[in-house]
Amino acid sequence: MLKSKLAKAISLSLKPQYLVMTLLATSTSVFSSEQDVNKGVTEDVQVTRVVGIKQTLTSNIAQSTMRSEADLSTVPRSVQVINSEVIEQQAAANLSDVVQNVSNVTEHNNFGGTRDLFKIRGFEANVYEDGTRVYGLAQDKAVIEDLESVEVVKGPESVLYGNMSPGGLINLISKRPMPISQNQVKMTMDEHGKQRLSVDFSGPVNDDGTVLYRLVGVFDDSESWRDASDSKQVFIAPSLSWLVTDDTTLSFSYKYNKEELPFDRGTLAVLNSNGGWDFLDINKKRLGTDFSRQEREVHKFGFDIDHAINDYWSMRFKARNYERKSSAKRVHFYASSDAAVETYNPPRAPFPVDLYLEDKTDHAFDGNINSYINGSRQSSNTQLYSWENNIEFNTGAAEHRTIIGVDYTHYKEEKNQSASASWSKVNFAPYAEYALQTPNTHSGRFDYYTDDPSQAAYPDDMYDIKDVNLKLTEYSVFAQDLIKYGDWSFVLGARYDVFEAETTETWDATFKANAAAIGSPQTNSSSKSPKEKNISVQAGVLYKLNRQVSLFGNFTDSYLPNQKFDSIAKEWVEAQNGRQFEVGSKLSLLGHRLNLTTSVFRTDLDNVAYAGDIKGSFDVYKQKSQGFEIDGDYAITDDLIALFSYGYTDVDFVDAPDSVSKPVNVPKNNASLWLAYQASHEWGVGSGVRYVDDRAGNRRKGYDYTLDAYTLIDAAIWYAPDFADNDLKLQLNVKNLFDKDYYTAGSDSTQSAVYLGSPRTISLSAAYNF
């Protein structure tokens, strides 16, 4: 029975003496495994040897498409891998800086700059960490120093990963222990006050190299270009690999992350006197406040067992436990002109109350902005267990690489919601006035032209509103087969999921009593969703015309529970179901120096649900997306390498209410180019350009403002001097070289918050390896 070269490379990588060569091999160019190699070496060494051109900005090996290492040249999917070299060259500060290199991936509402949220092909992306879904509250921001690479899979992957959006997934591949000692200390600073120290230590623990360790640490105490936006972070991530035998490896990991960071909604889109929209020019000023912040602490525990049962069958057991706690005081704001003030005076009210309503689309902006404070104390726990079996076998001339497994996930979330009596939201203003007897429930109101809200004092009058608890449980069984038959490769897969959720809402006893006393009784509630069962399938085919050209096509589907109960229709909204059809090509031209993945796609999603005009109701409609994209790399010379992408997406809602326009934060065109030139073994330079087309900032027709297109230029230069044996590396980066003003995303809310892009930023880093 014939064993594939890739499988041999993977099995060899379990042994310390071959691990380094295997990792190097994963960063060679597309189709490089087809080039001639030295016939004088053994086959085991031959499969891991680095051959061909010096090209390491992308990788042709990915973990996401088979839940284990797979050669992308045989997989009929569009997948891009950005590895640590391009992350380092571009001095990526966050995940957005990384995925900007990939077509049709754009920034989405990032919840005040506290989360990594993106769209792929017009739909919300799913962020995974080493193949593990990051649920709910734990979906924070990636720690770049902990990443070995980032994989972007376009289109649904429900067969392997369960419930998800049809856009695709972003999989963060963490650094793992290495068999040789390598240590780095790095310091990064920028002109706005960034101060970030990171360490990365790895190597064998014992003499025979059967126990390997890695320790990644980050210590940050930084200022931002925005006023009152300082942040702090401590991140520590030790991991250990124990090669128990040649066939068995145990892996342990732990990640601790503690952050204090601002909650910053950016600026506002406001209605002007001509009926159009303007964005408030706030520059560095914050419309929020100094105390609008969030603190969080995360513990992530991981345990893996990898065992090769024989030459053709290997299994992995994976366990994860994520614990997260956070607290926040978030300042939200909206335009509220004098013309929007209404008087609230119900029959039993002791006195009338002025309510400073959102202008929405009714009145021109007159400078008045109302702010309110939402507080929260939150905790969550994610438990995930999976058992995977990778089996290789032949049926006649067909070679099979099959993965069969089961997944179990349990997620629990607890939230305590609170509000400020004096910086009150409109719907709580009567409670603050009547029940709490607050003199001025709208103390957060200010004049944009004369006041500086960022320096406002914290009112210190928060009160508890209610507790909301959520439990999710999902268990599933899946199978996928990658079949190679001559020049043909096929993928067939299916998954069966069972999903259920339970939500409880418990009002604070004091709040409940006071609300009842003023004629607004509140009732505790508990709801359990019906047990949803779903079958996901996918099929794909790739045909290798020759050593330079392969054609592929696929059909994939997705499902995502809405978890929404329509209290008007008295029914649960059905789960979202997506379908994608995609055809494309994988090209390796000019002696394998120019490598391209191109694709044309069409994706349809049913049961998109948004809150309706009547409280408790939901509008349910469809969304479609179609487009074209190209991603590639080009070794112009051995020392000059280009990484480039272009994407076109046309996205619309279908059968939507008249009040709905277009999905937000989806540009029709986006493109990127990064050039890296290694002038000598000491000096190197890089430069890049990225373009993002204009985008809808709000999905509602009444809020028809558009975020303008923008083009940004970046540059870098690095120096590893001979006098330090090239172990010291100094790097200077300039992002947004020409200091362009731009907007990254809209919040898609009636409050019309819009996120600001960073101005020109000069940063300097120094890394020492020993």
Automatic annotation (TrEMBL):
The keyword Transmembrane applies. Residues 72-168 form the TonB-dependent receptor plug domain. Residues 243-737 form the TonB-dependent receptor-like beta-barrel domain. InterPro entries: Beta-barrel_TonB (IPR000531), Beta-barrel_TonB_sf (IPR036942), Plug_dom (IPR012910), Plug_dom_sf (IPR037066), TonB-dep_rcpt-like (IPR039426), TonB_rcpt_CS (IPR010917), TonB_sidphr_rcpt (IPR010105). Pfam families: Plug, TonB_dep_Rec_b-barrel. One of its GO terms (cellular component) is cell outer membrane. It is a multi-pass membrane protein. It is found in: Cell outer membrane. Keywords: Cell outer membrane, Ion transport, Iron, Iron transport, Membrane, Receptor, Signal, TonB box, Transmembrane, Transmembrane beta strand, Transport. Belongs to the TonB-dependent receptor family. NCBIfam families: TonB-siderophor. This is Putative TonB-dependent siderophore receptor. It comes from Moritella yayanosii.
